[in-house]
Design a protein that fits this description.
Blueprint lengths: L10 E4 L6 E4 L4 H13 L2 H15 L12 H15 L3 E7 L7 E7 L4 E3 L7 E3 L4 E5 L4 H9 L6 H7 L1 E6 L2 E3 L4 H8 L4 H12 L3 E9 L6 E7 L1 H4 L2
Antiparallel strand pairs: 1-2, 3-4, 5-10, 6-7, 7-8, 8-9, 10-11
Amino acid sequence: MPLPTISTPIYELVVPSSKKKIKYRPFLVKEQKILLIALETQDDRQILDAIIQIFENCIVTPGFKVDSLALFDIEYIFLNMRARSVEEQITMNIVCPDDGETEISVSILIDDIKVDFPKGHKKEIKLDDNTLLVMKYPNFDYFAQVNFSPETPDPYELVASCIDKVFVGEDLTDDFSFEEAKEWVETMTNHQFEKIQEFFNTMPALRHTFKVKNPNTQVNNDITIQGLANFFA
């Protein structure tokens, strides 16, 4: 007699950047295995390929393209997949800021963690009177680097990989290689590069703010956790 088919629940969420609904299922044992094997190799390419494969396996909405996701979309979906696969809350230790030494354990419901969209954030950056830069958000490659790789991403390479279009007056340039973009970034002034850094500093992010009371001082502290890696730190 064959083994019975195990039913897998299907969930729905709204993609933060597009506001479109997608359906997904939790990680199965096979997805956990794919990720663990990739992590053991410590090879960035294999880790990235494993993460993309997991997303393609678990997102069941027909025609949905995972390569269209922004970094904060990827983090939000990954967090929810994990919640439905493992447990629906995260327990972590927090050091109270008021004295810098008291450590307490807190639990956060994953459903309470959302993507925060800061006011004033813009994808268009005016480098000078004649040059307008249009940025795009970091992708799966950057997600794999910041969450699963011991190496810190190069900020200049990050900027180069996120340049979408360049307007000089009315002339548009949008067909260039990563290497060409990297060389172009190196010709910028520090002031121009700082303008681009502001794009990343104000970028939408997985963020959760809550209060904790220091049991020793009785002071209520505001705590903000940002970025997927910090939720699992």
